[in-house]
Amino acid sequence: MHALPHDHTGARIKRLRLERHLTQRALSDLSTVPYSTLAKVEQGVTAASPHIIASVARALRVEVATVTGQPYVTELRADELDILIQPIREALDLFDLGPDPNVSPRPHALIAADADEHLVAVRAGEIKRVAGELPGLIEEATTAAHAASARGSWQTLASTYRTAYDVSSKLGYGDLASIALARMDWAAQRASDAVVGAMSRYMRGLTYLRAGQYRTGDRLVRVGLADLEQAECGQERDVLTGQLHLGAAVMAGRAQDRARAEGHLAEAGRIAGLTGEAAHVHWLTFGPTNVDVHRVSVLAELDEYGAAAQAGKGVRIPREWPASRRSHHYAELARAQMWTGALDDAFANLLRARKSAPQQARYHQTVRETYAGLEAAKRQLPDSFLSYGSWLGA
Fold first, then answer.
1. For the packed helices 343-356 and 365-376, what is the interaxial angle rounded to 10 degrees?
2. Burial class (CB in 10 A: 0-12, 13-18, 19+), 233
3. Distance CA 12, CA 363 (A)
4. Could you give the CA distance from residue 263 to residue 364 in angstroms, rounded to a whole number?
5. How far apart are CA 301 and CA 307, in angstroms?
6. What distance in Å separates the CA atoms of residue 141 and residue 211, rounded to the nearest whole number?
7. Beta carbons within 10 angstroms of residue 221's beta carbon
8. Which of 80, 185, 241, 249 has the least CB density, counted as fewest CB within 10 Å?
9. Which residues pair with 286 in a beta bridge?
10. In whole angstroms, what is the distance from residue 240 CA to residue 283 CA?
11. Coil, strand, or helix at residue 61?
12. Is the Cα torsion angle 365, 368, 374, 378 positive or negative in sign?
């Protein structure tokens, strides 16, 4: 009995391949994915790694989301999340219209407090609540920024755009996430805030990472690092610099460039030694633990799943880490364990990912691909395994 729909990633790859009249051998040659691996992925026998998905998407000239099936519309509709997306899209489109005469913004301190609370809430896994409240806050912050034209008001507006990115990317709306980042950079320029500008470059780089366009992502990281040279020295700049190196490390890993990945990890580790655990600086959870977590991700991207699983066992997550970041780590660790054959451990970490941030885990591509890989292994798993698949949206 299948716990997931038959339209899994492998089936979509096969359908897209046939639509382009390509044989498996031809797609293997175009994507550089080994023929035997591609065949197993299409059959649902082997899970599709992010590297495989990105390589196939580039070869077929489609977006990664087309291959993965995102956004997961049926589940979003069941959770009544789909109706929250259009209002966010409309609010983002107000950026250059000036003050709205029908909006009377509250004092800046109150708007800024709500914007900061949204950043915290979405990291606590409260995606639905934030998505519902966000459009109104963006509209209010937009009018306030245009009316006051003050640095703090533009920074607060940039913060609301960052939350729009967080929500849309977590729910699988990559196009909306890109728009939100463009707005964030626009507001950062008006605030003359080099740190926020660098952060938007970092997040934009992650969108290119997910799309498999590593060269562009790496260029964005380099631009972000250059932006930070204009910021004042201190912990804030150090944290952003370290986080950019972590993003670059994952990109290099997915591009199978071990030397560059290790170089970026080493630099991030050096900076983390200076900052210590700085989880609350721009809510990036930067510090020694985040370097260890990214090392697990990099090893997995390099297809060194055994080493990734072993490194993951030694990671101790601080209590103050946000639920969303904790859930993401458990999903990454589960993927590495699944590839090493440690199926029980992998499923245990999928359960941890769900417990930490259920709304995020339900729409997390790594969670879904790992679950599909566990199902394909055809080994006895507890009854809760099928229940988990139903929760994902079978």
1. 150
2. exposed
3. 18
4. 29
5. 11
6. 31
7. 28
8. 80
9. 278
10. 11
11. coil
12. negative
Average pLDDT, the chain: 92
Report yes or no: 35 and 23 within 8 Å, Cβ to Cβ.
no
Report the interhelical angle of 305-313 vs 323-340 (nearest 10°): 130
Domain map of the chain by residue range? 1-69, 322-394
Q: Could you give the CA distance from residue 56 to residue 10 in angstroms, rounded to a whole number?
A: 11
Tokens of 239: 């944290």
> What letters, b where the CB count within 10 A reaches 16 and e where it falls short, cover 170-194?
bbbbbebbbbbbbbbbbbbebbebb
Would you say residue 273 has pLDDT above 90?
yes
Stretch 342-366: mean pLDDT: 94
With tokens 């090392």, the residue in question is 295
Return the SS3 of 294: helix
Residues 6+ apart with CB under 8 A from 252: 214, 218, 258, 260, 261, 264, 298
Contact 282, 116 (CB under 8 A): no
Instruction: Extract the tokens encoding 20.
Output: 């382009």
pLDDT band for 5, please (50, 70, 90 cuts).
Answer: very low
Tokens of 33: 């994915």
Query: Given this structure, which CATH class describes domain 1-69?
Result: mainly alpha
Rg (CA), the chain: 21
